[in-house]
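INTERNAL AUDIT FORM
Audit reference: QA-55
Scope: verify that the stored structure record matches its stored sequence.
Auditor: D.O.
Record contents follow.
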Amino acid sequence: MEPYRNGFLVTDGHFNRVLYVTLDGEITMFREFNDIVPTGLAVRGNLVYMAEAGPVPHLPENGKVVSFGPHSPTVTNIASGAPLLVDVEFGRDQMLFALSQGEFQRRPRRLSGAAEYRFTCKG
């Protein structure tokens, strides 16, 4: 769940979608996906960053962090290669962190514009 505009966004991993919920409790579909299992969210400006666990058996190549805007027809891959991503959050200096159930190594770069974070699986 992540605060967004005058409400919040919440992932629905069972139906592979992100919902927008107003403070009055009105629920609308914000974004729908194929079989990717959306998990954690982070927001910067109008961009939403979302962790994808991927379908079972949660292979490293299916774990991704993506970004998208409220009206954007496309989703941008930000990072991939970590098994079973469960959350994504911003830390100090706009550093983007992804939480994975499993082991991996990352080579961080600052997030600005089209910067990418690449994750390399360990073992």
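Auditor finding: record pair retrieved intact. The chain has a mean pLDDT of 83.
Action required: none
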